[in-house]
Every structure is written in C-alpha cells, then in structure tokens.
Design goal:
β68 (1080-1084) and β69 form a beta hairpin. The strands form 18 sheets. The protein has a 6-stranded mixed sheet with strand order 4-3-30-29-28-27, with no helix packed on it. It has a 4-stranded antiparallel sheet with strand order 2-45-44-43, with no helix packed on it. A 4-stranded antiparallel sheet has the order 5-6-7-8, with no helix packed on it. The two termini are 19 Å apart. The chain is 7% helix and 33% strand. By secondary structure, it is mostly beta strands. The longest helix has 13 residues, at 487-499.
C-alpha cells in the first residue's frame, strides 16, 4: 500500500487535470499530519520500466485478486479502467488510446475520494483521502441517482458495500463517501456488487456475490433517482413502506467460495446471461432463457469455456473493440490479468476471403443477414457457394446448394456446456442457508418444489424451460443430415440449439496471460532488498535485489537513456544456505571492483568477493561470517567511512530495529570490523531496521533514512560535533518521513537511476515489489492569504478563484492524501462488537476450543493454534490469498505437544526480546514454555521448561503475561478452574528467570468457574486492558486506574461485552482479523466452535 509523492509533468486540458487530481493517491506531503520539515521533496512515482527492451509495469504493488471495471468516467468517448485490488484500494488506468485502439496507462495505484467531516471549530470540512476498504476492493460504477454521472460502489472483504456519490458531473467527477454500509446491507464477506436493470422497470437492481458462494439479488423498490433495496422483511411490517420485493439467492456455487458475478449477453438474444467466478479458478455459466422483463437463469456449465486459473477468478466482460462481441478479462490470484479476445465465428471465417470487404458488412446484424451480405459481395448465389465453402472448411464433394447448408460448418457447439450438461441436470446446486452469514436475504421457498438453481431470478417466476436435452458435438452435425432441406425447420433447429446455450457466435481466443504487462524483478520471491552500482564501468547503474529465498538477482542496465534491465546469472548469487539476503555493492578491499556485502536471516554478514575485473565481475563466496559479526537476526548492512580514516565502516540494522555500528580497525584493503555501538543514532525502529544514507539537507554529512516493518521511512539527520563525531549529532527529523509507505518491511535505497543528476528513491517491500520514485526536487512552500475552495453549484464544479488552469507543460504537484485508516490509527477508540458468526472458518475443533493467533511460519499471513479438551494443539494455516474461511489443518500436535488435556495456548513476549513465545496451560495446572529463538518475522520455538519449574496455577491453568510491578520483567497471571487468578512475579535466576507465587486471589476476583485472563490494548490507548473470560461465558474487563500512576492497579472498565450473546465455556482472544486497526474478538466455546465478533469501533 504505497503512499508516495506524486507529480505529473504533462500537458493537460482543465478537464483531464481535474480527473487526475481526484485520482491521485500519492504525494510528497500529506493533507493531514504534514511533517514539519524545512525541506520537503517532491517524489514522482514511476510505474513503467524496460525489461529486456520491452516496456513493462515494473514498479507497482500486487494486483492479485483484482477486479476490473471499464467506464467512460470522463465522457470522452472511450472507456477508462478501474481495478480493485486485494489491498483494499483501487488503481486507475487512463485510456490514452482511441476507440479503435485503446491503450490503458496506470496513473495511480491509490484512487482518491473525499470524506466529509467537522473541524475543531465545528466547521464542515472536506478531506481528500485514499479510498481503502480494508481488503478485496470490488468496484462497480452506475448512475444510481440518474443525475447523468457515474456513482461508485465498492465491495469489501468484511462484506460491506461502500457508496461514493459523484457530486461532480460528467466531465468533473468528484466522489464523496456517503456510507460504508450501503442500505445497511451486510454480507458474510467478500461482497461483489453488480447493478443491472433485469426486470425492465428502468431502475437498477443489485446483485451481490459473497464469500459463502451465494449470489443475491435485490430488486429495486424505489425510483430511477432514488434506489431502495430491502433486506428480507415481514410483509406486514416492512422497514420501508416502499419495499415491494424480497431479496433472493439466485445462485450458490458452494462448496466453492468467493462468488464474483458478471453479466453478459453471451447468446446475443438481447437479454443478460450470467457468469460467476469461483475460488477454484473456474466459472459457472447461467443462460437467461427468459427475457428483459422476466429473467430466468439456468445453469449450463460449471466449467465455462474450460477456463481454469487455478485460484480465485474474477471475470469481466467488456467490448473492447466495439464489435458487439465482448472480450473477457480475468482477475486471478496472482498479479497477472488474463485477456481473451472474442473473435466472432462468422466474421473470423470471412476474413479468409480476400475479396470480401468486411467494413461494408453490418457486424451487429443477425447471423443470417451477415452471411447474405457476404454472399452478395461474392456475386450472389450460386457463385458465392464455392468461396464460402472453401473458407468454411466444407469437405470436398459435399453438395451445397443453399446458404443454410453452410450453417453446420460455421456454428460450432460449446463443448464446455455439452460435457457438463448431464451432470447439471441431475444435480442442483441450491444449498441450505443455515450456515450463511449474510443477513440480508433468504432462500426462496414460496413453492412446494425445490427450484432448480437460477430459476428464481425475477420478482415473478417464469415457466420452466421445455427442452433441456444435452446435445453433443457429434449429434450436432448429425442433426443437419436428418433434417429435410426446409429453411423454416432449419431455423427452428438453430433457434432451439441457441436456446439451449449449445451454439453461439462468440469465440474466445487467449490473447495474453498478462494484460497489464506486470513483471516483478524477483519473480514469485518475496522481501526485496535493493542495491546499485556500476559493476561493468559503462557509466550506467546496475542493480542487485536480495530476496526471502536468499537468491540475489542481478540486472544490468543496457539503456542509452534511463533504464533497461537485463537479468544476469552468477553462481555465487544463487540460493545457498542464506535466506533474506540484503546485499550491498561496495569495493570492500580497495581493488577497484565491486564486491558484495550481504546480510541474512541469521544475523551474520557474508562477503562475496569479486575476483573478476572492474568491467567484468566474477563473484565468489569469500567469507560466510565476516569478522564474526552477529546482530541476532535479519542483518541489513550499510557501509560508509564514518570516522574519516579512508576505510569503510559498517552499520547493520537488525530485527529488533536497532542500527549497530562496527568500526573498521583494519584498512581499506583488509577490513576488520569491531563493535563500537549497539544503537548508533539513538533511534530504535519497531522492528527490522533497514538503513541507507542520503544527503537530505544537502550538507556534507550523509543523513540516515531507515525502513522498517511497518513500511514507513524514518529520517535521521547528522550534524557531527568535533567530539565523537560518529556517535553524536544525530537528530530524528521524522518518524514517518513525508508519509511515504510501502505495504510493509520497507527497504530504501537512493541512487541516480535515470542519470539526471538527481538522487532518486527506490524501495523494496515484503511482497517482493520494487518501487521507483523520481526526485522532483525541493517543494516550494508558498503562503497564501486564502485557500482555493471547491464549490458545487447545480451539478457543476466551480472555483472561487478566477485563475484558469494552464494547459501548457507544467509540473503539477498533488498533495498526499492520508489513507482512511491512517487518519485515526493512533487515536483511542471505543470498541463496538458486532456478531458475525458462531462457526468462524466453519471449523469444528473439539470440545473446549481454546484459540490463539500468530504468524508462526513467517509468510505474513496469520495462523491459528487451537487447544482443546482432548489435549491436542492443532495448527491451522490460512490458505494464501484466501478468505479466513479457508483454513488448512497442518497438524493436531503442533510442536509435538502432548502435555495434557484442556490445552490452553497463549502467544506472548515472555522474555522481552521483541518476539512472541508460546505458553500452554493444561488440566494439571502446569505451564509448558517454548522460547522463540527466531525473530518477530520467523518463529523458531525451542522448548524450555526451566522458568516454570515449581509453577502450578491450579487445574485448567491459563497463563497471561504482563509487567505488573514496572521492573522491566514480565510477570504472570494464571487463571484456573476455580475462577481465580494466581499472581506470579518474575525473579532473576542467574542468566535466566523464574517465577514466585505472590498471591492466590489476585484482585480478589472470582468469576465462578474457569477464569481465562487476557492482556490486550482493547481501546487503543497504549495501556493494557485485562479481560477475564469464564465458563459461564461472561467476560469481565478492567483497565489501569489513571489516578494511581506509580503502581499498576485496576478498575472496572466499560462493559463492552454486556449486550453480546456469548457462548458457554468462553475462551476469548483478541486479534485484528480484518486489518482495520482495531481488535476483533474470537471466543472458543465448549461445543468446539469459534464465535466471531467484529470490532466496528474504528
């Protein structure tokens, strides 16, 4: 989620300028929370670059699980493109081509909308902010209010539909957020809205695909300028007197999930057919055998066109070339969008005849008319029969007298429908709705017969399809031989086959498996670390990219101007025992060529020596542990002559966020590094510091720019004093410098990549993406007496300043909008919990389920560890790119745990080293402890029973970790069967620690049976909250007493859980499941399921 500076150097009309202004989501300075820096730079994101001589989309975030929507947003006659992404944001591609030859260019990855608010003086304000719905943005454009411009609706992972009203006009779109929950409609997750008038009443109806696999339809009970979509209601007591229609489920693709519906007139009969993308990469096809007033969808294929993307698929049909036969675009589980051209069957065959002038044929006409027009161009009957027969592949010797007899050689059956037709007739897909989390609709049960899937798609049902017999490819041709040469009968047969969905004029040809031409320089690898240097002395900077696998990717720049990357292979850079390689190109031995110093996961420093020449490198591994350096884990080196002795000293970032200084006490030809300081700048990042140097204030002293786990960059300037110049004079200028941010684990690097004598910024991130931002120079801060204000008058956009936007070539700086979740990310909140499901993930975990969440395998996706009454410790891994409903059981005995019944796992940083350890209570009252010897990114659990020798918490022990006395060491609270809390204080024990029982009834608390303590910051106020569960299901909450700051004491906190219906045997855990910045609630129950309550307090 890249929030970087953005400026365009373009010639724009005032109309296009305003469109781009409200599309930009990246800039050097944020609207809210600007850095109070004297020097602020303009950074210009670059999305495109050359790879082996071909222009590619190289510098972007992931486009996995994207959903495409084409819309002529600027009403210039061609369609632009909006793309919803898995990160919850929307990218905008401007069509810079024409109707005949469209060309889509990425303008921003972060589409901007406007939020309305109130400032401190209670004045109404408008804030431009990046549109961010959390995850899995699913955009849809429709003029829902009939004011002549497109409004925007966006589905999301949490199942809500965001509504953005266009308060601009056709030429000047301006999207204002109206509501994050459109019409109060809530679904189980991954909502995908689609609008179409399916019943001919001239109002748009709403279709919604969901995570559960169901597709819902809401008929519009309102008017053309005011839509009304009603949830299921009692006829005698509707929520709105205008409610006329009950919502219905028109399709259910279960056991597959993540239904993505799309309308298309596939059979060219002027009504809308339906396709639905599925989580297994295949597509269902539903033929509309009704009409525009009474639609009637019948499932015809579960494997439409034999398409299989291997993962989630999001189909979009769009007539790209305006020939009335739509092309197909597929968003996939990767960043690659698959594109199928639609070659209409008859016209494609007619292209084989050179004398036919296709531009004189009405391509939108009926099949018979097109064929007749072609025949007339060939001098009519019977002269046209021979060239047409040759073009259509009629076997020699076949007697053809009429155009009708050519039909079997033109019309080809859709085998994907034929193959599955018998199976579909025999098995309906309509399923019971009892497990559906959507609260807006219910199954139609108005008739005695269970309806076949798709047969309840309109406000009133239509008649059953009279003939649903399957026709194979062989039978198709056999039919023509048996029929008498009567035109009427032939046409009737054709129409019958069309009505069955067997034949169509569409013909999909795979055109591209990568429509956007997205390429990642590290392929499918992750965690990119970049360095640059001219290793062949050709005057152009080449680059190395480290990666999670440990391979170092080498690219040589062969462009005359700018960059053109060509990959090179070096044996020493391929994957070996290293992981998370972080290379630096430098001449460490002073021989005139570039060596490589490389950090790794183990915290060591590797020296890869260049034994070649200054123009032709030959790298070999020289030293696996340079100077016996060990910074713990995830070392990221940086070399610079820090002390002015003409040799290179070493700075190393590590997983704890420190920057450690090693002085070179060797010389410039034979380095030897000695530890001098463990926190050189006095700055500690939250985790995973990645330092680089840049002369920010343009003095002679390099400053530090530091990446970290959260994705932001910190700026630390350096003005060294005469005394101790290396270790002193460091000043933190900005913890979140210019609001520049990647999706996580930012690794910055400064270099003049394009040769314009300005230092550019490149950054890697945890997904393996590479971001490239050109240096637009220092921003000029101009103070004005009055800011320009945008005013809307009668659906037109006016400016209270008369100054026109100049259309000449100018640099247009665009301010950085703050992302929605960043506006309040650090503010306290009041938790508000909303029930979502009593069977989270559809998991059945065994009696007395006790959940705990942590990313234990280092894939940046949260995992689930669950204890239960049987003494299992189950390990579930969430399928990458999937919804949380798709969990994979990896083991029933995580870490080979077999330590007793009623296992109660808890992740906490017991030893204070910055990563989570694992504690497991059990029926016997013991606590088993696994120390995390890995890091905050990659866990490595080592069993260590020593600290808990003699610790007994009572039957059914449940541990919680917190520093109770402020001595810097974590203490223990242990719940137990009798409903009390035991307090254990940490005491030093040689080089380790142990625990001493101090009190058996902490807080004099007695919750009845089964106390379950949890320490969490529930209200985001940077203070711990104590939540205690109980077997009765009731949750007790406490917060620190602000009147007693010297000693941690507790007082009862607001009853956040009072109105919740909680399960018996409640074992709570708090975790941010939806990545919205607040903690959701998962409760393990006695019956073995997990209850899910979403926190909507943010």
């Amino acid at each position: 989620m890249f929030k970087a500076p953005n400026t365009f150097n373009i010639q724009l009309s005032s109309v296009l300028y305003l469109i781009l202004l409200f599309c930009q989501g990246t800039s050097g300075t944020a609207i809210a929370g600007d850095d109070p820096l004297a020097l602020t730079y303009t950074w210009i994101p670059q999305f495109y670059g050359n790879l082996k001589g071909e222009t590619k989309l190289l510098y972007t975030n992931s486009f996995a699980r994207c959903q495409l929507r084409f819309v002529d947003i600027d009403h210039d006659g061609d369609d632009d493109l909006y793309v919803g992404k898995a990160d919850g944001r929307i990218a905008f591609f401007l069509n810079q081509g024409s109707i005949a030859d469209p060309f889509f260019k990425l303008m921003t990855e972060n589409f901007v909308v406007i939020h309305e608010g109130i400032d401190e003086q209670s004045n109404a304000t408008h804030v431009r902010t990046v549109l961010d719905v959390g995850n899995n943005a699913a955009p849809e454009f429709v003029d829902i209010d009939s004011d002549g411009d497109f409004d925007l609706f966006v589905g999301s992972e949490d199942g809500h539909i965001f509504h953005y009203e266009n308060r601009g006009n056709q030429l000047h779109p301006m999207f204002f957020r109206k509501t994050p929950i459109y019409m109060e409609l809530k679904f189980g997750g991954n909502s995908v809205p689609r609008f179409a008038d399916i019943n001919g009443d001239r109002t748009y109806d709403l279709f919604v695909g969901t995570r559960s696999g169901k597709t819902h339809v809401f008929f519009n009970s309102g008017m053309t300028d005011e839509a009304v979509f009603c949830q299921h209601f009692e006829v005698t007591d509707p929520p709105d007197i205008r409610c006329k229609y009950q919502p219905e489920v028109i399709a259910d693709i279960s056991p597959q999930a993540d239904a993505v519906p799309e309308f298309v007139d596939w059979d060219q009969d002027k009504d809308l057919d339906l396709v639905i993308g599925k989580s297994n990469g295949k597509i269902n096809y539903y033929l509309n055998t009704g009409d525009n007033f009474a639609p009637h969808w019948s499932l015809k294929s579960r494997h439409f066109q034999f398409i299989d993307t291997g993962g989630n698929v999001a189909p979009t049909f769009h007539d790209l070339n305006r020939d009335s036969f739509p092309e197909l675009f597929l968003g996939t589980s990767s960043s690659k969008v698959i594109y199928y051209e639609n070659h209409e069957v008859l016209l494609d065959l007619l292209r084989k005849i050179p004398s036919i002038q296709l531009h004189k044929i009405d391509r939108t006409a009926a099949f018979e008319k097109v064929l007749s027009q072609a025949c007339l161009q060939l001098k009519g009957l019977p002269e046209c029969i021979i060239p047409l027969s040759v073009a259509f592949g009629v076997p020699e010797g076949t007697k053809i007298n009429k155009l009708l007899q050519l039909y079997p050689y033109i019309l080809v059956p859709d085998i994907s429908i034929d193959v599955f037709s018998e199976e579909i007739v025999d098995s309906a897909e309509v399923t019971d709705d009892t497990n559906e989390a959507d609260t807006s609709t219910q199954e139609n049960t108005a008739t005695d017969e269970e309806p076949e899937e798709g047969n309840v798609a309109g406000p009133e049902k239509t008649g059953e399809l009279t003939n649903q017999a399957a026709v194979s490819a062989g039978e198709f041709f056999h039919l023509w031989g048996e029929i008498e040469p009567d035109a009427a009968e032939k046409n009737e047969k054709i129409e019958n086959l069309k009505s069955l969905g067997i034949i169509t004029r569409n013909q999909l040809w795979l055109s591209s498996r990568n429509f956007f031409k997205i390429e990642n320089l590290v392929g499918n690898d992750r965690h990119s670390f970049l360095t640059s240097g001219d290793w062949n002395q050709d005057g152009r900077l080449d680059i190395l990219l480290g990666s999670r696998s440990g391979e170092i990717y080498a690219f040589e720049n062969r462009a005359d101007q700018g960059t053109d990357w060509y990959p090179l292979k070096f044996p020493a850079l391929e994957t070996d025992r290293r992981q998370y390689s972080s290379p630096v190109l430098t001449d460490i031995d002073g021989d005139g060529d570039l060596d490589i110093i490389c950090g790794n996961r183990r915290g060591k420093i590797e020296w890869i020596l260049n034994r070649g020449t200054e123009k032709e490198p030959d790298w070999v591994v020289h030293d696996m542990n340079l100077s016996q350096i060990d910074v713990g884990s995830f070392s990221t080196p940086l070399l610079q002559d820090m002390d002015g002795d003409e040799d290179l000293d070493l700075l190393v970032g590590n997983s704890k966020g420190l920057i450690i200084y090693y002085e070179n006490q060797g010389n410039k030809n034979s380095p030897h590094f000695v530890l001098r300081n463990t926190r050189i700048s006095g700055i500690k990042m939250k985790a995973s510091s990645a330092p680089t140097f840049w002369k920010w204030n343009e003095d002679e002293y390099p400053d530090l720019v530091i990446g970290g786990r959260e994705g932001f960059l910190s700026l630390v300037s350096h003005k060294p004093p005469e005394r101790s110049p290396v270790l002193r004079g460091w000043t933190l200028e900005a913890a979140q410098w210019q609001k520049i941010k990647t999706i996580g684990y930012s690794t910055p690097h400064f270099a003049d990549i394009d040769g314009d004598n300005k230092t550019d910024l490149l950054m890697g991130d945890e997904q393996g993406n590479l971001h490239y931002m050109k240096n637009g120079g220092l921003k000029k801060i101009v103070e004005t007496q009055q800011e320009s204000t945008l005013i809307l008058t009668e659906n037109t956009l006016e400016d209270d300043e008369d100054e026109d936007v100049q259309a000449d070539a100018t640099i247009i700086p665009v301010e950085t909008p703050a992302a929605e979740e960043d506006l309040e990310a650090d503010e306290p909140i009041e938790p508000i919990f909303e029930f979502i499901s009593d069977k989270y993930g559809n998991l059945e975990l065994g009696r007395r389920a006790f959940p705990a969440f942590m990313d234990v395998d280092g894939d940046s996706i949260i995992d689930l560890i669950v204890g239960n009454n049987a003494g299992e410790l189950r390990y579930y891994r969430q399928k990458q790119g999937s919804s949380e409903s798709q969990w994979i059981l990896e083991s029933k005995h995580f870490l080979d745990y077999r330590g007793g019944k009623n296992s109660a796992p808890v992740f906490a940083d017991l030893d204070g080293d910055g990563d989570f350890d694992l504690l497991v209570g059990n029926q016997h009252g013991n606590i088993h402890y696994w120390e995390n010897k890995g890091s905050s990114e990659i866990a490595e659990f080592i069993y260590n029973p020593t600290p808990f020798i003699g610790v007994t918490g009572g039957r059914n022990s449940v541990p919680a970790v917190l520093d109770l006395n402020g001595d810097g060491r974590n203490d223990l609270l242990v719940g137990n069967f009798i409903g009390q809390l035991h307090k254990f204080m940490s005491i030093e024990n040689g080089s380790g620690f142990s625990f001493r029982l101090e009190r058996r009834k902490y807080l004099n608390l007695d919750v009845g049976l089964g106390s379950v303590p949890k320490i969490t910051d529930l209200d985001n106020n940077n203070q711990p909250d104590l939540i205690v569960g109980s077997d009765s299901g009731k949750l007790f909450s406490f917060q620190p007493d602000p009147e007693n700051t010297a000693l941690l004491t507790w007082k009862s906190s607001p009853e956040y859980f009072k109105k919740l219906k909680l399960p018996v045997g409640g074992n709570p855990v708090f975790v941010d499941l939806d990545s919205d910045g607040d903690l959701d609630l998962i409760i393990g129950s006695e019956e073995g399921t997990l209850y899910h309550f979403r926190n909507t307090g943010r």
